[in-house]
Amino acid sequence: MSKKHFIAIVFSLFFPLVPSAAPRYYAFLKGDTLHLGNERMERLLLWNGGAPITLALTDKLNGTTIKAQGKHPDFSIAKGKPQKSMLTVSEVSSNGISADFLQASIFCSIGSLDIERRYRIYADCPAIACDTYLRGELKLLQEESGQRSNADRKNIEHEADMTTIVKTPTLDRLQLQGNHWSCRSVEFFDYTDWNDNLVTERTWFPYRRNSYRGNLLFAQDMDARLGFFFLKEAPCSSTQLHYRGSDFVADFSDFMVVGFGISSADVRLDSWTRVYGCVTGVFSGGEREALIALRHYQKQLRYHAAASDEMIMLNTWGDRSQDAKIDEAFCLTELERASRLGITLFQLDDGWQSGRSPNSKTAGGSFKDIWKDETYWTPNSKKFPRGLKPIVEKGERLGIRIGLWFNPSIQHDFADWEKDAEVMIELYKKYGIRCFKIDGLQIPSKRAEENLRKLFDKVQEQTQYQVVFNLDATAGRRGGYHYMNEYGNIFLENRYTDWGNYYPYRTLRNLWMLSRYVPAEKLQIEFLNKWRNRDKYEASDPFAPANYNFDYLLALTLPAQPLAWMEASNLPEEAYATGSLLKRYQSLQLDFHQGTILPVGEEPSGRSWTGFQSIVSDHAGYLMVYREDNDRFSTELTTWLPEGRRLKLTPLLGCGKAWKGKVGAEGRIRLALENKNSFTLYRYELDR
User: Fold this and answer.
1) pTM for the predicted model, two decimal places
2) What is the pLDDT of residues 5-44, one digit of tens each?
3) What's the pLDDT tens digit per position in 481-504?
4) Which CA distances in Å does 406 have to 438, 440, 448, 469, 474?
5) What is the DSSP string of 542-596?
C-alpha cells in the first residue's frame, strides 16, 4: 500500500472524531510521524513502515518532553521487514462500566506472522495502553532474559566487550536520552494462602544490560525530573505463563518490557491470540505525581459505581462451618443479623448448589467433570426447597443484595465456559444475582485464559454489565492485581482465627502495601469475629484479635471493600453496636473510594501510626488514621498533602478531634489519638 493511500485512510477516520476545539484524544499520521495523544500526554512515533519507534513522550500538563533516540522498533518478536502495514482509528464507546477510548490499531505482517497493536487512548489520562494480538505462524520464542546471566560474560576491557548479540523480543521499548535515570521495579505476589508479603520493591540505576521482575517500572531522569512508568498488564511474575525470569530489561537508558505469556504453539493461523499488555505513562515531579498518574489510568478500566462496586459484604465461610450450616433457615436468620450490622451484600459461599465440592464438610465432593451432573449449579433442593427466592426477597426488604460463590469448570482449559456462563446468566435473570465470587481458578495455558475471558465477557454482555465478579486471589495461577481488572474486585485473602493466622495489623499491612500501586477500593479486606478461638492465641500475645475493639477491626477495612468474614449468628450482642458505624460509613463510602487512595504514615507493624489518604480533588479529600499499639499519644504523620497549605480536619468516624493548621515539609501534620488501637476518619479541606 502506498503512503498516499495509507494517509487517506487515516485522515478519513481521524477527522470526523476531532472537533475544531482541542480533541479529547487523537491518533494520526503526519508525514512519517505517528501522533497518539490526548489532553494530558502525547506519544510521538516514527512510522518505520508499520513497526513504530518512539521518538518522544510529552507530559502536556507540565509542558515537558522525554526525548528518545531509538533505532529498533518498540515491539519486536520476529525478524524481517513489515509488510501490508495499515493504521485504523476508531472510537470505542463506554459499555457503562469503563471509560470510552480511541483505539489506534497498527497492522502489519512479517513473513507468515500477522501483528496488530491496538493502542487505547483515554481522554484526560497521562497514560496510553497497548494490547497486542498475533495470528499466523510464530517461530520458537527465544529471549536472552533468563537464558544467560551477565555473570557468565567475560570482563570488559574493550568497547567490543560490551556488545550483546542476542536480540530480545519486546512488548514495548523506550530508547531514551539521558544518563541519570533512577528506577524502581515493583513485584507483586498473590496466592495469598501461601504469601503474607505481597509487594517487593527494588530501586536501581540502570547500568549495562540487566533484567528485573515486576508488573511496574518507574523511571525518572534525575537531571530533568521527568519520568515515565511501564505497567505490564499481566498476572504476577511468579504466575505468568511461559515466564522466562524477568519482565523488564534495561541497558543504560534503553528500557524494554519483555515476556509475552505465550509459546509458539499458542499462535494460530485462523484466530488472533492476545499477549500480555503494556501501559506507558508520564509524570513530572516526584512520587506523588507518579502514583497519581498510574491511578488515573487504573480508574479508566472500571468505573466505581455504588450500585455494583460498593459493598459491605457478609460471607459466613470465615467461621469455618463451610457448607454444613447453609440452608434457607440459616440464611434468613443471617440476613436479619446482617441488617443490624450494616451489611449491604450477603454472599452465599460454597454449599448453596446441588453439587458437592471437595471443600464440603461431607466427603466425596469434586470439581471433576462438573457437567456430567446437569443440576450441579442449581440451588440445593433439600437446603432451599423454595429455591433462592425467599432469600432474595428478604434481602430486598432489608436493603441487602444477594451474591453467590461460583467455581468455573476448570477441566480442559475451561472448555465448558459457555455452560458456566449460561448458569450465571440464568441466576441473574431468575433471582437478580449480580455478584459472583469466582473461586478455584487455575489458568495453566493461553487457551484457558482466553476461555475464561469469554466466560466473563458473555456474562457481562448478557446482563447489560450489571454483574460484578469477586476474583479470588488466594491460590492457583490467576489474574493477580493488574490483569482482568475490568471485571470487578479482588478477594484478597483467607485468614482464620481457627488456625490462629488472623492478625489484624498484618491484614492492614497487606492493604497498606498494595494500595500504593493497586486501587484500595478494588480489594476486599476481611474482619473477623474476635470473640471466637481465643485459645488459639497465646494469652500474652498483644496482637491477638481479642485485644482489639470490634469497631477498630472493621475500621481497618474501610479504605477497601469491607468483608465481614464470619457468621453473624455467632456474634455476641455487643458486636451489633458496630452497626451504627457501618451505617454512617455507607453514606461516605462512594465519595471516599472515588478519590485516589494512597498509604500515609508508617508501615503497619502493630506499633505504628499509619493510615490512608483519599485525594478527591486538589483542595479536599479524606484522611484515615490509625494509632496502633504504641505509647506515642501524638505523631507527625507524613501524608501526600501539599506543603505550606492551610488545612482543616473534620472527624467523621472514630475518636479524633477537629484540627486546623499548616501542612509541614513532606506533608507532615501533627495528630493525636488518646487510645491505643484507635482510629479516625477525617474529611480534610485545603485553602484554595
Assistant:
1) 0.94
2) 343 344 333 433 443 456 899 999 999 999 999 999 999 9
3) 999 999 999 999 999 999 999 999
4) 5, 9, 17, 10, 15
5) TTSGGGS-HHHHHHTTTTSEEEEES-GGGS-GGGGGHHHHHHHHHHHHHHHHHSE
